[in-house]
Amino acid sequence: MPIQILPDDVASQIAAGEVVERPASVVKELLENALDAHARRIVVRVESAGRRLIEVADDGCGIPADEVALALARHATSKLRNADDLFHIHTLGFRGEALASIGSVARLTLVSRTEDAEAGARLMVEGGQMGALERIGAPIGTVVRVEDLFYNVPARLKFLKQDATERQQIDALLSRYALAYADVALQLFQDGRPALQTSGNGDRREVLAQLFGVETARQMLEVTLEDEGLRVTGYISPVALTRSNRREITFFVNGRWVQDIALTQALLQAYHTLLMVGRYPLAVLFVELEPEMVDVNVHPAKAEVRFRVPDRVFSGVSRAARRALLAYSPVPTVTTAVGGWRPDPLPRMPDPAWEMAAEEQKEKLPAAVNGQDEAVGAAVQEELPSGNLPLLRLIGQVGGTYLIAEGPDGLYLIDQHAAHERVLFERLMQQYERHQVAAQVLLEPLLLQLPPAQARLLQDQLDALRTLGFEVELFGANTFRVRSLPALLVGGDPAAAVRAVVEDFEEDEAPLQREVERRIAARVCKRSAIKAGQLLSMEEQRALLLDLERCVSPRTCPHGRPTMIHLSVDLLERQFGRRGSR
Hints:
Layout: H1 8-19, H2 23-36, E1 41-47, E2 53-58, H3 68-71, H4 98-104, E3 107-113, E4 120-126, E5 129-130, E6 134-136, E7 141-147, H5 154-158, H6 163-180, E8 185-190, E9 193-197, H7 204-212, H8 214-219, E10 221-227, E11 230-236, E12 242-243, E13 249-253, E14 256-258, H9 261-270, E15 280-281, E16 283-288, E17 294-295, E18 306-307, H10 310-328, E19 335-337, E20 340-342, H11 352-364, H12 367-370, H13 374-382, E21 393-398, E22 402-407, E23 410-415, H14 416-433, E24 439-449, H15 452-460, H16 462-467, E25 471-474, E26 479-486, H17 494-499, H18 516-528, H19 538-549, E27 564-568, H20 569-575
Helix pairs in contact: 1-4, 2-6, 6-7, 6-15, 9-10, 14-18, 14-19
C-alpha cells in the first residue's frame, strides 16, 4: 500500500481517540476550559450517561466573537506561543486540540460572550464540519453543548461501558474537581436530577462533608507542608478509616488532577506499619511547585506528569502525611473487661522485629508445615470431605480469629468471619427465596450521605434492597434514609451494611455478577459478619459451629474463600514422625 496523507476527517478522529476516550473525558476537557476562563460558577448537564448530551456552562471571561471559529480549529490556543512555554504552563489546557477533537466525533454547539460585547456568538460543528457563525443574545461566559457523542464512530460507541459505569466516572471526576476548586460553585445534573452542588465558598472541609458525609469529613486529618518551593496541602484519613482499594486517593499537581503511582506509593509509605494488608487510606492532596519543575506534556489526556526532582516531591508528600498522622492520631489503648481483657478496636500494628523472628522460625519448620512441600499441601485440601460437615467437637478459639474443632477424620481450623458470613448469607437467601425476609424497623431512621458516584449506584439498587428487607429511600441530594434492615443483621451497623452495597471489594464476585440480589446479600453479610480478632464466648463459638454445620455449602464463604482448613489424622501423624514422609 503506497504512503499517502490522511484526509483531515480521519486525522481528526485519530486525534480525538487520544483526547476523547469516553464521556468523562469530554466533561474533563470542557470543565478545565471553564476553570482556565476564571469561571466562578460552572453547571454541567449530562443525559444518557453522556451519550446523548453533555453541556458545560460557565460564567468565565468568554471568547471574542471573531475568535470563536479559531477556538474550534485544531492546535489553536491562547495559552502558549512557542515550545519554551511548555515548561511554564500555568493553565490546565494548552494544546488547543480538545474542542476540535470533540467536534470531530459529535455534534458540538458553542455559545460565548465577553463582558464588553453586546451580543454573543454561536457556532456549530458536526463531525468536524464547521457551520456559519451567528450572533445571538447570551449571558457572559461560555456554553458548550455536545450531542450524540461518537455518532459517526460506531466502533468507539460500542466500547463504552454500561450507563451506570459511565455516569460513575463523571460523578467521580466532578467530585475531585469540587475538592480542588472549592472556591468555584459546581453543579452537576445527571438526567435532570442533581448529583452534586457546591457553594463555592472555598471551604474544602465543607465539600468533604458533602461528598463523604459529616462524620468522615470530621475525621479527616489536615496536611500542610512548605519546603523550599514545594507546598503540600490537603486531607488524609486516620488509620482507623480505610478502604479496600486505592480509588479514593486523589492527587492534584498545580491544580491538575494526575494519576501517579509514585505519588501514591509516597503516601502509602507514610502509613507503613500502620495499616493492615489490603487496606488503603482516603486522601485528597494538592502538590504545588514552580511550573518549571514539572512537565505536564507527557500524556495525551494530561493525566500524568514528570517532576524535575522527583525524590524531593515524593519525600515531601510522605513527610507531610506522616507528620499529620503523628500529630492527630491518638495513641492506641488497651481496655480491660470482666472475664479477661479485650483488644482495642483499632487494628494491631505490625511489629517488624516480631515478623522477622516469625519468618526465621517459619524457615526452621518442616517443609510440609511452612508450605514448601506442595504434595503434602495438596493432600490437605484433597482430603477435605465434600458435602455436609461431620459432627465436630469444639476445642476453642485461637488468635481471636479461628475456631479449633475435632472431627472423626482430623482437626478443623475454622475462620470465624468467613463462617459467619456463610451462615448469614444462607439464612438471608432462604428467606428471600420464600419471599419472607424478616425486617426490623429502626427506632430512629438513619441518614446516610454518600459521594455522588456511590449515591447513584445505591439509587439503582433500591428495589433489590427492598426485596432483601432493607427500606431505604432517597432523602435529598446524595442522601438516603434507612428505615429498616433485615432482622438477621440487627445489632450490627446499619450504615456499614448499606455502604457495603456500593463499596468495592477485592473478592472475585464473578459467580454472582448476574444475580444482583445474591451479590448484594453477599456484600452485606460480609460487612455484618463477626470480625477477625473478636473474642467469642464458648457458647458463641458452639452456636457458630452448629450453624455452619447446618449450611448447604459450609466449605466456603459466598465469595469463594474457604471457611476452614482440614488437617487429617494421617497428616498429623506424618508431621510427628509416626509415619513415613510418603
